[in-house]
């Protein structure tokens, strides 16, 4: 199952990734003091939205992965190891010589500027390379895997230089029934631990992975469970289910959670800067404005969308009521004032913030489009072609829409054979490639210009650099 995906911009990754270093005994001890530990005995989250199915695809993800994780870990769940044993065990893996396996002599991975990455969320977090070819069809292959302790709910790519330099290549991940946000360095192969953790429990061990690597198999054993009820300062207290990176202020990340809160984080200092509590149920979607990067949208299961200027967090902001639970949000990349909200009832509504004149806005939407009768879980604007929108739904279909003059018309329908869809995204480098992921766990990429109706409208249009 693919619960979330994001494109990594062309040229953002290192040409030759670094190799992970094994954590020392001191690093493991430090980890115990600073990070949360994930346990199968974690307390249940009992908010209405989870008990009544408001996080429908979240439960589906948990159920799907629960079956495999229990069977894989059954034999090891009763065992535990001391810190010294963990360090010794990691050394025995001899990860430094892993690439010298006889079945893959001289194999190396090189990321060049003509390649793009797609990272997708499963229990094993996959990073794929999408390579351009002479015939126009992308060549997609797996680049590396990151082992996660629980199913990921949401992701956000960011290039904040957390390790120095001018840029970085990182992904933030929110995990199911976990209070922390993990940030992983995508330029390190076979990393065992996240480089940053935002929030989480105050003590215990988080994401401590004992990776036993054989020639063709990867076995993951989670080690000793330490349960602490105390949270680190500023932490969410329930699952993080929405993330958004601020491209202008590159150290800033927004998060939404089942705990009903929206938080703004400084990933460089690993601290929560702002906590907003304007929703009455879980917050599934957050989105920064492209033109006014201090402006943040949040969408909730309480059937509202709220706009806030984070420079004035005490201001009530502007609120729009919608008729169904919010699935996702997107700002129009071609307009400072327009945004979309997709809903559980199968509709997508467009709004113009200039029509919001009070803190509680009852303004009608600029338009409403009906994808179908099932939830529209993901939407993606095309950055090259104004008014071109893709919608993905749990009815297993993707639809393309022309939103010109606020009169949406469906111009193409595609069924990617990926099951119920949970995430779709246009590439920013080749904006006519659409990545799609869903219940079946198969990453799909659709060249939308292969549809004659789409190519007749947009085939001759120049791609914006």
From TrEMBL:
GO terms for cellular component: nucleus. Residues 54-67 have a biased composition (Basic and acidic residues). Residues 31-85 are annotated as: Disordered. It comes from the Eukaryota. Keywords: Repeat, WD repeat. GO terms for biological process: rRNA processing. This is Uncharacterized protein. It comes from Arabidopsis lyrata subsp. lyrata.
């Amino acid at each position: 199952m693919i619960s979330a995906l994001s494109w990594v911009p062309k040229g953002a990754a290192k040409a030759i990734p670094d190799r992970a270093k094994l954590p020392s005994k001191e690093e493991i001890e430090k980890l115990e003091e600073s990070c949360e530990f994930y346990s199968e005995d974690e307390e249940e989250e009992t908010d209405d939205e989870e008990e009544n199915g408001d996080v429908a695809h979240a439960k589906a993800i948990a159920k799907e992965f629960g079956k495999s994780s229990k069977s894989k870990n059954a034999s090891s769940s009763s065992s535990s190891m001391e810190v010294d044993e963990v360090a010794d065990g990691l050394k025995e893996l001899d990860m430094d010589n892993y690439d010298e396996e006889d079945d893959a002599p001289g194999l190396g991975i090189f990321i060049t500027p003509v390649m793009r990455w797609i990272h997708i969320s499963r229990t094993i977090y996959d990073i794929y390379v999408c390579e351009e070819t002479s015939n126009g069809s992308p060549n997609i292959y797996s680049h590396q895997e990151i082992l996660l302790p629980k199913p990921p709910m949401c992701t956000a790519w960011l290039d904040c230089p957390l390790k120095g330099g001018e840029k970085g290549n990182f992904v933030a991940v929110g995990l199911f029934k976990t209070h922390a946000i993990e940030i992983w360095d995508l330029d390190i192969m076979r990393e065992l631990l996240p480089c940053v953790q935002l929030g989480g429990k105050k003590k215990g061990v988080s994401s401590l992975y004992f990776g036993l690597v054989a020639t063709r198999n990867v076995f993951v054993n989670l080690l000793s469970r330490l349960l602490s009820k105390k949270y680190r300062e500023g932490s969410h207290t329930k699952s993080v289910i929405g993330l958004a990176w601020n491209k202008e202020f590159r150290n800033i990340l927004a998060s939404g959670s089942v705990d009903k809160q929206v938080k703004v984080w400084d990933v460089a200092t690993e601290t929560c800067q702002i906590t907003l509590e304007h929703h009455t149920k879980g917050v599934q979607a957050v989105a920064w404005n492209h033109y006014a990067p201090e402006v943040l949208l949040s969408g909730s299961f309480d059937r509202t969308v709220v706009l806030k200027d984070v420079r004035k967090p005490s201001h009530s902001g502007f609120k729009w009521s919608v008729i169904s639970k919010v699935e996702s949000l997107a700002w129009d990349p071609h307009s400072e004032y327009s945004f979309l909200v997709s809903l559980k009832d199968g509709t997508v509504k467009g709004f113009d913030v200039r029509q919001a004149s009070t803190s509680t806005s009852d303004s009608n939407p600029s338009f409403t489009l009906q994808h179908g009768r099932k939830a529209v879980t993901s939407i993606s604007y095309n950055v090259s072609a104004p008014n071109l929108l893709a919608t993905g739904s749990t009815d297993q279909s993707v639809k393309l829409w022309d939103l010109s003059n606020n009169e949406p018309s469906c111009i193409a329908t595609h069924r990617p054979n990926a099951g119920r869809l949970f995430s779709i995204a246009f590439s920013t480098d080749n904006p006519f490639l659409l990545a799609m992921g869903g219940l079946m766990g198969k990453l799909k990429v659709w060249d939308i210009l292969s549809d004659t109706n789409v190519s007749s409208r947009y085939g001759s249009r120049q791609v914006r650099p």
